[in-house]
Amino acid sequence: GEYRQDLIDRAARDHVLNASEIESLLTDDEAEKALAAAADRVRQEFVGDGVHLRGLIEFSNICRCHCMYCGLRCDNSKIERYRLSPDEIVELADKARGYGYHTVVLQSGEDLQFTAPVLCGIIRRIKAMDLAVTLSVGERSYEEYQAFREAGADRYLLRIETTDAALYERWDPGMSHARRIQCTLDLKKLGYEVGTGTLVGLPGQTPAMIARDILWYQQIDADMVGIGPLIPNGDTPLGKAAPGDWHLTRRMVSLLRLLLPEANIPATTAMETMVPHGREVILNSGANVVMPNVTEGDFRRKYALYPGKICVADTPADCRACMGGRIRAMGRFVAADKGFRHHGRRRQ
Ligand code: 5AD
Ligand code: FES
What residues form DSSP beta bridges with 132? Predict the structure, then answer.
């Protein structure tokens, strides 16, 4: 008990732990509350009480990949595929701005019909609206990442999923772990704010691997880290796998805040799919970002990474009002700025 609290206090003060210390806290159920309390204080101290809302536009569910857990995998014939037009995407961004979002996240499967020139045109039109733009369209060449950046993209989300190369290549067949690391470093070099993260609960993943994930996020100085538990999808080869451990994921969020105090850390949709009001719990455990969906109509349901996705019957206006109310009820507030990554402690 005392040793555990000493470790947590030291992490909250120095933002340093070694792999075995991280692993001991990750696997300790009884550490969860104290970890969350310490992470909540560090979150307050470094990034404040503002919660940044990012409007998520799921613009295509067409994907060339075969990830064994993901409903968008190209081998899945059970979902209806769709692709929004550039005009439709720009219109959703304009509506997102109308709801008071300051960032839009353009997310899709790895859909190569969205060539660099097409995506650059979309990015330029959205940047003209004074919105921050986050891209999440998977692995592309250095030249394409450079073109997106020059068109105005500010941030890029590309989860590493796991830093264990063998585990990654087992569950993302056809993909190269070295290539994924290279993409992440390319994005950093190009001056993006880079988001990475872990899929918690991949079969064969160990707490030691998750500890190494956290150390790698520290090492690359990740600007954003998004993590969520595996939610088995019956239309995929991992449909009968055990779900990821929600509590382990929560402890990982808290450890991330202690060790990357300046990072933007979302309370992810998957955390709320597993536990009602899960996003509030995570916002009180170190997180400071939420990504409400601004996709409209039936496209929400069709963008089915995993079953049980929340808000499929809600409108963008519903989600914006819902999250605003919930954030205020927690004694926090919806941040009014674009929410770029912090450097150093918050000015008082
Ligand atoms: N359960 C939870 N998260 C998933 N993702 C994909 N499929 C699943 C699933 N079945 C996550 C991956 C990916 C992100 C967009 O969604 O981590 O990076
Ligand atoms: Fe969608 Fe609550 S966030 S309805």
Answer: 103
Domain containing 143 — which CATH number? 3.20.20.70
Q: What is the CA radius of gyration of the chain?
A: 19
Mode of pairing for the β-strands spanning 155-157 and 289-290: unpaired
Q: What is the pLDDT of residues 107-146, one digit of tens each?
A: 999 999 999 999 999 999 999 999 999 999 999 999 999 9
126 inside domain: yes
Task: Name the closest ligand to CA 139.
Answer: 1
Centre of ligand 2 from the C-alpha of residue 146, in Å? 34
| Residue 273's pLDDT band (cuts 50, 70, 90) | very high
Q: Is 22 in the pocket of ligand 2 (CB under 6 A)?
A: no
Q: What is the ipTM of this complex?
A: 0.97
Report the distance separating Cα 160 and Cα 170, nearest Å. Answer: 14
Question: Residue 323 C-alpha to ligand 2 middle, in angstroms?
Answer: 6
Crossing angle (nearest 10°) for helices 32-47 and 2-14: 20
Q: Which domain holds residue 285?
A: 2-334
Name the closest-CA residue to atom 12, ligand 1.
199
